[in-house]
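User: Could you check the structure of this?
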Amino acid sequence: MNLILIGHFISKKRKEQNLTQEQFAQRIGVSNKTVSKWETGKSMPDYSVVQSVCDELHISVAELLEGKENAEIQKDEKIMDLLKRIQDLEKQRESLYGILLILMGITLLALSRTFGGSNFKDFLSGFLCGLSLVEMLCGVFVVGKTLRK
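Assistant: Sure, the predicted C-alpha cells are below.
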C-alpha cells in the first residue's frame, strides 16, 4: 500500500465533497490532526473507521486501499476482515513484546540474587535488580497499552 497515494486520494475526494479536514473529521468521529496524518501519508485510517471514511467519500474500500477510483472491485467485507485481522496481529505482537520484557526482567531479578559479597558484586547485584524492575515496568506498560486499544 502506498500511504502517500492513499492520502492524496482521501484529500482529493474530501475536497470534491467541499469538506474541510475539520468537517470531515467530525463526520467520521476522529480529530482533524488524524485526517491530516492520513492525507500526508504518515498513517492509514484505522480499520474501525475505514467504512465510515469510504461512506463519507462515496468510494469503496478497494478504491481507498488502491488510492484511485475504479480500483479492481473486491468484496468490501473480505477487505475489512483482512484489515481487522492485521490490526489484531499487530496488537498481539505488541503484547508479546511486553510479556518478553516482563520475563527478561524476572530473569535479571533472579540473576541479581546470585551476586553479592564484595563492593563490586553488591553494586552489580543492585544494578541488575534496578534494571530488572525498569524492564518489568516497561513490559507492564506495553501490555497495558495494547489492552487499552
